[in-house]
Design goal:
Elements (H helix, E strand, L loop, with lengths): L2 H11 L8 H21 L3 H10 L8 E2 L6 E2 L1 H12 L15 H15 L4 H7 L5 H11 L13
């Protein structure tokens, strides 16, 4: 881990809601609302349904919910299905800073883990102590307002 990543991880681990500026909270809410809308809107697509059908029969605890359908599955299965729904038709966000789609890659796992652990989404984000590099890049992207290439409609 680089020194910059350590500093950012330490900052993220100690972050409280009061320290998050309102504009950054608004961006995070936009990402969440956008991603849930895309998941609901794209869940019916044939390739999304193929993934749902494959993972729907996963054995294990009923920890997290599949968006739109309400299936209760192990956290990894629900997160994967929801991520597939959210990235099914190129409506999701695009971020040149991390060369990825942070909404479809980060929001579904965070929501699934939050449901499993009975946390609000905010609690999950603030309580994560071992942050993956992608999550750190997500925070940096929000802090730097690098969402210019987001090719979805912003929720108003």
């Amino acid at each position: 881990m680089t020194e910059e990543t350590r500093k950012l991880a330490s900052f993220a681990a100690d972050l409280t809601l009061e320290q998050v500026p309102e504009p950054i909270r608004a961006i995070a809410i936009d990402l969440l609302v956008d991603q849930l809308g895309i998941q609901i809107g794209c869940a019916h697509l044939p390739w999304a349904q193929a993934v749902r059908k494959t993972y729907q029969h996963a054995r294990g605890l009923e920890e997290a919910t599949v968006v739109r359908y309400g299936d209760k599955l192990p956290v990894t299965s629900a997160a994967f299905i929801n991520s597939t729904f959210g990235h099914s038709f190129e409506y999701d966000d695009a971020n040149p800073l991390i060369h990825g789609h942070i909404g479809g890659e980060l929001i579904p796992p965070l929501l699934a883990l939050s449901e499993r652990d009975h946390l609000s989404g905010l609690e999950a984000i603030l309580k994560i102590r071992r942050v993956e590099p992608q999550a750190l890049q997500f925070c940096a992207a929000l802090a730097n307002r690098e969402l210019k290439d987001w090719h979805s409609a912003r929720a108003k």
